[in-house]
Amino acid sequence: MVAVPSPLYHLVVRAHDPQRPYYEVKWRAGARQHKRRLGPAWLVQDESGEWVPRRGRIRSGFLDDRAAHARAREVIEETARELEEASQRRRAELERPVTVRELAHEWLDWQRHVKKAKPSTLADYEALLREPGTPYRRGSRTSAGRILGALGDMPIRDVRTRDISMFLRSLDAEGMTPRNVNKHRQVLSAMFQYACREDAHDLPANPVSGADKRREPPPAALDYYEAHELEELARVTAAGAHRRGARDELDARTDAQDAEFFRLLFYTGIRLGEALTLRWEDVDLDRRTLLVRRGLSGGTEGIPKGRRFRVVPLAQPAIEALRRLRTRGEFVSADDYVFTNAWGRRLDGSALRRRYRAACAAAGLRPLTLHGLRHAAGSILARTADPVFVRDMLGHARLTTTDRYVGAKYRPEEFARLDAAFVEGTAALTETVVAAD
Known about the structure:
The structure is a single chain. The chain is 46% helix and 11% strand. The protein is built from 15 helices and 11 strands. The chain has a 4-stranded antiparallel sheet, covered by helices on one side. It is elongated and about 125 Å long.
């Protein structure tokens, strides 16, 4: 290999095959070194291995030393122009205003890869940030795409609080519920709060902060089944009374398991996704505990809601339900699901909800959601247990969430106190007045 020095570049001869040498140019521009292949060299090696010019007229397409230097200068100039054009494009891209649409895509990507948002949370965000007219996965309906339809083309630095307020008022005018209006506001606020970060777009302020939240109605009063109602539901389920027509052996197995599933939700208060992903390795009947370390979000197993594991103590009815499940003879290894279909796979939550609603109707119970069994566990436990114990058992992040269960229904002893205060007190006062007369 022979290098020809130059004040600006080095001309190099290379040859992977001694019969096919070629010229290469190397030069430094700024802090980077560049190299480019120029073309086949009209050279041959002498006896000492040095490259020397071939004899005869230079064949078309080949380069001698003079042509190689000329071509090297052309390549260096071409590369310099390309680099300058690329730099100008990058500057223009940086100077170009970022739109709300672009911010939305960037924020979703940040939520997905940096914040590791749960699949169900991402699905909610993506639903609100679809383009107008995007078809849904099922059916013939298309997305309204309200956020991007109204604000998508606006540069984020031009968005003002008034723009956000007018957008939210347009949702009010559509008849959207305050809760849904607030969902749109929440997503916009989170997007612009991200844009205010120094490592994002360094906006001076979040324009959504000054826009009014809508006043939402208070949550409905909690209603839930008592233990005797749950046991009636489980009995009807196990008997298959909610099914239409004949019941085969597989149906009977499913019904028996569903009954225990409803019992476990009621007596432990674990979430539906936590129960669906529960495995036998998480069950310790000797210590009367469940280890909740999985949940279900958007059909994907992951860590539970709240991003932490918890140990749930087991009441005796829950222990008995789990012991009955252990006697089924299959799918009881440590890594098997506690609740499985006929092939040992995880149950389908949607199908389970349908069977639950049918069983509630067959048992003559008022219709409550399957999640209401968790409400029942928290509310019944709150009658006698310390709120901190209820919070930890249910896996709430804040005690204020647990407060909802306190006083959902009054305890029998509280009615006794009322009678003592008013009925018995009134009777005693009446007797005193009569005696005085």
